[in-house]
Amino acid sequence: EIHITADRVKTRINPRMYGLMTEEINFAYEGGLYGELIRNRSFKGEAGYAYQAEEPVYWNAVGAAELALDRNNKLNDALDLSLALTLKSASPEQPAGIRNGGYWGIGLKPDTSYTVSFYAKAEGEIGPLLASLVKAGGASLVSGKVDGVGRDWKKFQITLRTGSELVPSKDNVFTLTASRPGKLWLQQVSVFGPTYKNRPNGLRPDLMELMAGLKPKFLRFPGGNYVEGDTFGQRFEWKKTIGDPAQRPGHRSPWNYWSTDGMGMLEFLLWCEDLGMEPLLDVFAGYALNGERLSSEEDLAPFVQEALDQIEYIIGGADTKWGAQRARDGHPEPFKMSHVEIGNEDVFDKSGSYDKRFSIFHKAIKARYPQLTLISTMAASATPSQRPEMIDDHTYAWGEAQMYEHLTDYDKRPRTDPKVFVGEWATHQGWPMPNMRAAIADAAYLASLERNADVVQMAAYAPLLANLSRVSGHSRDRSLQWATNLIGYDALKSYGTPSYYVQTMFSSHLGDVVLESSGRDIPNWTSDNGKTFPALHWVVTRKDEAGKPGRIQIKFASRAATDQPVRVKLTGVNKLAPTAQLTVMSSANPDAANSLDEPTRVAPKTQPLKGIAREFTLTLPAYSVGVLEIETR
Ligand code: AHR
């Protein structure tokens, strides 16, 4: 039985409670959200753990071509090498050149335009080049000629449009060939498919649409570990990620693969703009993952300045130095931002230097931007020199039972402590992506966060994106560095996990206030290691929209293995609409998950529920998550 006291408000809920956390992991941008289809377009990338490109990885010869990296024929100081092709023999019948298989394939769809671009120069009369999208091991699907390659570097661009008869597939490659022998140099060889809102250098539409379904209100970026890098030199050095993508050097990410940084500062901000999110910037705070750190004011000064400049790039007027740079990059209007995080998971810095680092960054940022809420990555006790306004807590539960142990974390939190941003959290159950058990534990956790909305101001599941093309095998060619994640995809398809649907259910039924409620005779479940937990978790919220009747929202997570009839009693409410909207996701098999081939095996369904009164019975299906929304009159 659940008793709801509808006239007793427990606390208000932050309207910006739910957002996204993102970083370059699992080929989230390269081979994911960033619309580039060519892998290692700049030839600077190395597979696995190597630090400097030694061969043009992910590129192969077509015909009688020899491929080599050439550091003496660079395009510019950022892309400081090129691919040199020696075409020993080539003819229209037997062309020679290069081939790239994309990120485990190149996804092609019918009636779609693909923009090919590259920089090239040649020795002698190389003749026209042929850019083609080709069925792997088969025939060309679409191709176009590019003429005019000469002695000096020049950019070329051509659009290839697929025919209506093309069957969507990812088993395709890109080739660029010549039909005369000679010597050719290439750099920034790129193919873009359609992008969200047709933005140049933009983002993959299906992934943007899935994210839009989460109704996110903020984006924590650029990491995660990706902010810090393995070394100082491999941090997210934002100034090297703006402007012309061919002027961005790129860098190695801490997840062991190359970032071209095509997905740079402005691209993150436009991602926010397109999905109605506020940027929540995480600044590098003088600590890298290998333990390198600086903590004197003098040593940290350049990094503090880097952070101040970064904030100015986001919120500064076009009359400020970095706001003007943003305007030159194509966005004169400043973005709106209210929160900045200092560092990431500094609990791993065993030297205890965060107290100093946090207070130095805090002082400098507050002096310039007093309106910003500054988030610490450690508990207030770790930063005695400067009390944080907000703490970023990370809660990864290794198994559903562990998440059930976290459900009272914030009930116990002293209300005098700083507010909380749960900047990374997830239940790990299922492989490589979360199953229904994980989703139920996630929903129970979200209910616990909403019940404690006076403390917990914001939450973001992590990681967000995962390329599932190669989930196991050698790290040199694996697309997955971290299981489990919210959204999965390959070069062609994408889908939301059951955990994704939990997020959509909670964020699209975000109330304004939490109502008092209590339970009786709640059944239990017992975990594999013999621990017993309540099987039913819930939160009751109310949404009040001007000019509309209020809506009471009962969000629930049932871990019970059988259907559970729950008697719901409502007091403190006048009239109720007799029919409510019930959205439920359930699976008789709790180990069920979604996949690229079965993207909605586990997904919510909405239906009307009749018989709503001050007392009624709501039957929760076995293993279910849901929301019942009741209109008050
Ligand atoms: O989300 C994956 C990683 O988990 C993040 O990079 C890091 O912040 C955390 O340890």
UniProtKB/TrEMBL annotation:
Residues 423-624 form the Alpha-L-arabinofuranosidase C-terminal domain. It comes from the Bacteria. Belongs to the glycosyl hydrolase 51 family. Keywords: Glycoprotein, Glycosidase, Hydrolase, Signal. Its EC number is 3.2.1.55. InterPro entries: Alpha-L-AF_C, ASD1_cat, GH, Glyco_hydro_b, Glycosyl_Hydrolase_51. This is non-reducing end alpha-L-arabinofuranosidase. It is an enzyme of class 3 (hydrolase). It comes from Pelomonas aquatica. Pfam families: Alpha-L-AF_C (PF06964), ASD1_dom (PF22848). One of its GO terms (molecular function) is alpha-L-arabinofuranosidase activity. It catalyses: Hydrolysis of terminal non-reducing alpha-L-arabinofuranoside residues in alpha-L-arabinosides.
